[in-house]
# Entry
Amino acid sequence: MSASTSNTATLKLNGQIPLDQEIEQIIRQSKNITIKSGTEQAHYGPDPEGLKILPEASRERLEASGVDLSKGYPNRPDKSKVPVYLDEAFAIRNEDYPYIERGKNADPEKKALKMN
# Structure
């Protein structure tokens, strides 16, 4: 390989905005950076193909809960709403939840299970 040929891309920063904001802009605006699994091409919004593989029992449960499946399932959020940095992801549910011991309120005599 000659010195004039290169297979690497150079990231040029404009220096006008902070580096973290520029990285976020690059990630959100790039068409090559996507959320995907395997070789599947990522898309955003409802997935009509997902309804074909959704088990009937799951479909009934989701519809009974009020989930709108008319356009497809699952519904992936728009790329602009996906957190870029770890602290943004933590901020979604950054609150403590009280620990409730399992079975704390259970009936130790199990009266409801006994047959009369």
Summary: The mean pLDDT is 76.
